[in-house]
Amino acid sequence: MFSAISMSAADLPDGVKVGDVAPDFNIKNIDNKRISLSTFKDAKGIILVFTCNSCPFAKKYEDRIMNLHTMYAGKGWPVLAVNPNDSTIAEEDSFSAMQERATERGYRFPYALDETQAMAMKYGARRTPHVFLIQNINSKFTVTYIGAIDDNANDSSKVETRFVENAIDNMIKGEPVEPSMTKAIGCTIKWRNL
User: Fold this and answer.
1) Strands 130-137, 111-113: parallel, antiparallel or unpaired by DSSP?
2) How do the residues of the chain divide into helix, strand and coil, expressed in percent and rounded to 5?
3) Structural domains in the chain?
4) Are 182 and 173 in contact (CB under 8 A)?
5) pLDDT tens digits for 131-147?
6) How far is CA 44 from the centre of its chain?
7) Which of 15, 1, 8 is nearest to 119 (CA)?
8) Is the pLDDT of residue 178 over 60?
9) Which of 98, 103, 182, 194 has minimal CB crowding within 10 Å?
10) 127 alpha-carbon distance from chain centroid
11) What's this model's pTM, rounded to 2 decimal places?
C-alpha cells in the first residue's frame, strides 16, 4: 500500500524557520469555506497544527489540541487544524471522514484539508501532529515556534513540559519563546506520489 510513494523526506523543501514570515495559504475547511491568513487578521496569533484522523499520535493529542483552543482562543490564539495527508493512502483522512470526526468530537476550531499538500511543503511539516505557532506582529504573521505540543506523546498525565502553552504564555507576557524549536513526534505525513 505504501510502496506507491516515491518521495522521501530528503526530497521535501526545508520549510520555514523561526522568525520567518508565515507563508499564506488557501485551504478548504470542513464547512466548505476557504481559509487563509486573512481569516485570522484580528487574531494575536494562530496555533497551526498539522494533524489528521488516522495517526495514533494525532489521536492521542486530539484532546490536548481541543484544550489548547479552549485555553487560548479567547486570548486571541485560536487553533487551526490542517490535514495534510493524501487520502488515497490513508482513507481515514478523506474530507468526508474529517467532517465526521470534527462533528463527532465537537471541534470548535477550523479543520481544513491541505488538498495539494502545498501548505505542508511550504511550512516544512513532516509529522502529525506538527505545530507552528504564528504570531501576528503589526499585521505581519511571523513563525515563533515549531515542533511538538509537549514532551509526552503517549501519556498526557505524565507531561513535564508543555511547549506550546509555555510559548504562547511567554508571547502574551512579551517574553522570548524558549525553546523556540522542538522535535515533532508523530506519524510521517502521507505524501502523494509526485
Assistant:
1) unpaired
2) 35, 20, 45
3) 2-7+20-188 (3.40.30.10)
4) no
5) 999 999 998 999 999 99
6) 17
7) 15
8) yes
9) 194
10) 9
11) 0.93
